[in-house]
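Ops channel
N.P.: pipeline sanity check, posting one input/output pair.
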């Protein structure tokens, strides 16, 4: 069972590497400046959202909102 899982995961890794390499080998026009700006803004926004969600996760954990209810 482990060997099958390892084989599948290695196959997926090889497939991702192949598709990544083939995407880099595509010839064409370079990305315009606006594309880089949009990429940077999208990545920055994703990081800000991720940090905000992690802050909410830790806040709710520290205040006890994640604990099961205690009925009297």
């Amino acid at each position: 069972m482990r060997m099958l899982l390892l084989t599948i995961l290695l196959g997926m890794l090889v497939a991702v590497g192949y598709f990544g390499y083939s995407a880099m080998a595509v010839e064409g026009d370079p990305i315009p400046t606006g594309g880089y700006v949009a990429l940077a803004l999208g990545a920055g926004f994703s990081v800000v959202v991720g940090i905000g969600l992690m802050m909410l996760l830790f806040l709710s954990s520290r205040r006890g909102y994640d604990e099961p209810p205690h009925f009297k």
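N.P.: looks fine end to end. The radius of gyration is 22 Å.
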